[in-house]
Amino acid sequence: MKTAVRALPALAARPAVLHDARALGRTVLGIAIGLTAFGLVMIYSWTAVKFADRRPRFDPDAVLRKQVVWALLASAVGFVVSRVPLGWLRKRSTLLLGGLLVLLALTLVPGVGVLRNRSRRWLELGPFTLQASEFLKLAVIVYLADRLARREEEPLEHRTPWPALLAPVGLGVGLILAQPDLGTSLFVACLGVVLLGLAGIRFGKLLPLALVAIPLIVAFAAANFRHVGERLEFFTKGVEADEQQWRGVVALGSGGVLGTGLGAGTQKLGRVAEMQNDFIFTLIGEELGFVGCAAVVVAFMALVLYGKRIAERAHASAGLFPFFLACGATFAVAFQALINIAVATGSAPNKGVSLPFISVGGSSLVTAFASVGLLVNVARTVAQEEAGDPWS
Amino acid sequence: MTAPAARPVTELPRTVPVGLARRTLRAVQRFRTTFVFGVVLVLFGALLVRLCRLQLFSGSDYRELVARQQSVDSVKPLRGAIVDRAGRVLALSRPVRHVLVEAGGVVLKSGAIKLTVDDVSRFAVTLSELLEGVPSAKELREAVQARRRDGPFGRSGTSQIVVRRNIDDPRIVARLDEARTRLPGLVVLHADRRDYPNGSWGGHLIGVARTGDAWGAPTGLDGVERGLEEFLRGETVRRSRPVDGRGRPFVTPRSVDPRDDADGRTAWLAMDLVVQGFCEEALDELMAAWAPKGAVAIVMDPANGDVLAMAQRPAFDPSVPSDEAGQDLATQWTTEPGSTFKPFTFARALDAGVLGPAEPLEMPRSREFTVRGSTTVVRDAHEGESAGPGTVVDACAHSNNPDAALAAFRLEASGMQRLLADLGVEAKFPVLGIPESREAKGYIPWKRLGATDHLRWGFGHAFTMTPLRLAASYCAFARDDFRPVTPRVVLAVGGETVREGDLGPVLVRDPAKRAVMRRALRAVVTEGTAVKAFAGARVDVSGKTGTARKPVGEGYYSCSFAGFAPADAPRLVCLVMAQEPSVRADGAKPYGGAVAAPAVRHVLERTLIEYFGVAPKDAPEHVVPAGPASDADLPASASPRTEDR
User: Fold this and answer.
1) For position B474, what pLDDT does the model report?
2) Which end of chain A is more exposed for a tag (fewer CB within 10 A), N or C?
3) Domains of chain B
């Protein structure tokens, strides 16, 4: 007891997580698991009430069970990713991206890719469907982390030119855009731009890339896909232009401070489409109110904060590859959460982006846990580097 | 993790231009990392602010929008049931469904019709399965296709065909209600089917409720159905229910409406279906024997005025859609009561002291009266020599017109007018359950009233009254207090017991004179005009016959008998009146004692002995077990409940 009392000032002066980078990783993992558990509760709140009248022909619990299986699978993937030696991963970054690009190309082949809502984004694997574009985000992070680190580590004369370096990423963005999936393609493009910016690319080169490539993608999508053009009406007509989004905002706003209570929301009953997925944040808002929503936002902010600390520690001690990995993984989760919540709150045009860890869907959950796995892996590596372990 | 160590450690750190200065690449990376992460955190913070605005400041506006997501349904209740005093069903509504199919569709801007049912074959198979094969898929398909061929559709392009009506199988109903939302083109209409399981029994009293267009709720058109329309119909509840995105109402713990129980209320009639059945039998026999134009039988409980049965011919069967009720003889037929009225004249004369209980009466075949200079001769309807002399008992037993006129003469016109007024001859009761328009009032021809007309009132002529009024008045003789009753048709409705009606004025105040009147009415049966009809009767009946001849030509207005039994402790009053009976096939003339008295005997004997358990007169001992004739006697399960059913 006396020892503990004596240790208190020290603990107060410097949190334990700063002593051990592993603790940062564990905290991130804890946040991810907490959000996933919370997501399962919200999914059950959606499915149990929405499909209550369809028993026994349809078992509402099946949705929850499937999501639990996905959560276990995602945890396993996250664990594997957290244990994979980063060197091994780095060596296979190009192979990983190449494989994902092939899968993306396969998705576009009629008969192989599954067409849903006028979009061909999924590959069918038995009872599950796989969204290859979700995994491409990770592949792009690993690929860019490797290439950007290599640009600094290698002599100037051996540097890969920017166009050659970015070509595979551009191909991926193009393939995703062809599905069509403007959101994910923009997401990957933004991720690339941000990683380039973090790598230190001069603004003179970065800005034209960002200011030309991204509007080009948007313009192309708006011209070719009617629904994209309709969603861009957000900027002229406001959130009420999109019925789904407006209903989501109504659901969210109606929650007030404490919400209607878990399971007592009514907007999930055919009012807000895809409430279990892209608009699950509105379900949280309706049933748990501002308190629930703020808790989720704060949790993501905490995840970003801890991701930043891991990235900074990696930058200081473990090299650029882990640094870019940590940044990329954090942004992958944070951007997705930002976009999802921005859409749900009517702050951005409607875009089908799921809320990491919480929304229904396996691919998104696996990607999110893989990102967390990367962060944990980097944290572990940083800890080993800081400890001077030469055998890691 | 080991980073590739390609670059010599002695090499200077790389620098990048930042504005006018150059900084090391590492420093730039650190700065940009902080900046980008900072931006992300700021964006999250901005979303928190947005959430504050949406949920904390504008939350009430959005809640209001959610609150408007309701459908306001007019919930028409199921029409209330009508049951007899023991709870036996007289009229009952069942929720049924009518199934229609939308063969047409919607007219598009181009003028083309977008058909609601695109795959008719598949639709027909699905619907036929729902309806358990009736009609078959083939019939359904052909019906839809035929309708489409026939055209034209309405302006909206809609055209519905009726597939099946009045589906009451709960399994099919549940299936239909569930399938309605997922099977475009299926139209399921809710309806209320009214059943009358007893056919024509009590048809006029119960009345009928029908729907004008076969889809709506039935409306009471006659009898109790009309008289209690307000109660039976129930209140249409406008219920706001939250609806989901497809407009389907859903139930949450907070959306349960306390007014869900909107069904109409059950009406408990005073009628006893068993007694009603005895009346129906009696009238069937009467009709077979005498072929009158019509006949009516009324059974009442003199203790409280409960109308235990009310039957008539021609009958009315509410369960037959094409049947019309016609005139309700019990309440709408106003007729001269004839000799059945004499006991009232004698009773009032005794009570007024103008006629002594033991005063000798000549009982002549005719008598001349002079009133205010006007002379009239009152003749007896019976032929042959006089049965007298006798007392008022004999005059009543032998139905002597001159002596009844003598009593009226002594009472004078004012006394007779008071008597008619006391009996309410010219008034409606009114009776709860009987529509006011279905109740007539008696008629006294005041404008052409002669000086001696009140003498004819003395033996039931020159004025009219309804059979129900006559029966209610006869209850006075069966009551210890000699007061006429108000009929009670409905015992309880809307959860409330209907109180007994008001009693009329006391006809005879002196108990000794009451006993004389009881003896007089008993003598009618034992030695008077009804002796043949009640010969060998198993219960002691008291009563009075009545025969009213047509004033012009041959034939009879009506033949009647009003009586009560048992004579010493009356429990039932029964009146039977036949309208214009014919001479029987064997040549027997239709007098009240021949036509109506046997019917009364049939009803009273069967009711008292077989139903109430009164020991027959020739039984070794009189055991009078409790019967279900009065409220107090009803078994607990059968007595009218005060709560809603």
Assistant:
1) 95
2) N
3) 67-102+128-137+159-249+262-269 (3.90.1310.10), 273-316+328-494+502-611 (3.40.710.10)
Q: Is the ipTM of this complex over 0.85?
A: yes
Contact map slice: A 291-320 vs B, CB within 8 A: 293-294, 297-298, 300-301, 304-305, 307-308, 311-312, 315, 318-320
- Cα–Cα dist A20/B197, whole Å: 87
Domain count, chain A: 1
CA-CA distance, B248 to B255, in Å (whole number)?
Answer: 13
What's the average model confidence in pLDDT over B12-22? 60
Task: Show residues of chain A in contact with B250, CB under 8 Å.
Answer: 53, 266, 269
Gap between the terminal Cα atoms of chain B = 82
CA dihedral sign of residues B228, B229, B231, B232: positive
Burial, A121: exposed, middle or buried (Cβ in 10 Å; 0-12, 13-18, 19+)?
Answer: buried
Rounded to an integer, the average pLDDT of A174-181 is: 82
pTM over 0.80: no
Q: Which residues from chain B sit within 8 angstroms of residue A53, using beta carbons?
A: 250
Angstrom distance (rounded) from CA A371 to CA A351:
22
Which among B2, B29, B66 is the nearest to A87, CB-wise? B2
- Check CB contact under 8 Å for A264 and B254: yes
| B51/A294 touch (CB, cutoff 8 Å), yes or no | yes
CB of A267 within 8 Å of a chain B CB? The answer is yes
- Asked, for residue A263, whether it belongs to a domain, the answer is yes
Q: How far apart are CA A279 and CA B466, in angstroms?
A: 76
When scoring B35, B54, B61 by the number of chain A Cβ atoms within 10 A, the one with the most, hence best to mutate, is B54
The alpha carbon of residue A105 is apart from the nearest alpha carbon of chain B, in Å, by 32
Q: If contacts are CB pairs under 8 Å, which of residues 324-383 in chain A contact chain B? A: 327, 330-331, 334-335, 337-338, 341-342, 345-347, 381
Kindly determine whether residue B54 and residue A346, on different chains, have CB atoms separated by under 8 Å.
Answer: yes
Question: Is the predicted pLDDT of residue B512 greater than 80, yes or no?
Answer: yes
Give the pLDDT band (50/70/90) at residue A372.
very high
Residue B488 has φ and ψ, to the nearest 5°, of: -120, 115
Flag whether residue A200 sits within 8 Å of chain B, measured between CB atoms: yes
Query: What SS3 class is residue B550?
Result: coil
Torsion (CA) A92, A97, A101, A104 in degrees, nearest 10: 110
* Token pair belonging to B43: 């964006």
Contact B602, B282 (CB under 8 A): yes
List the domain range (segments joined by +) for residue A9.
2-52+59-386
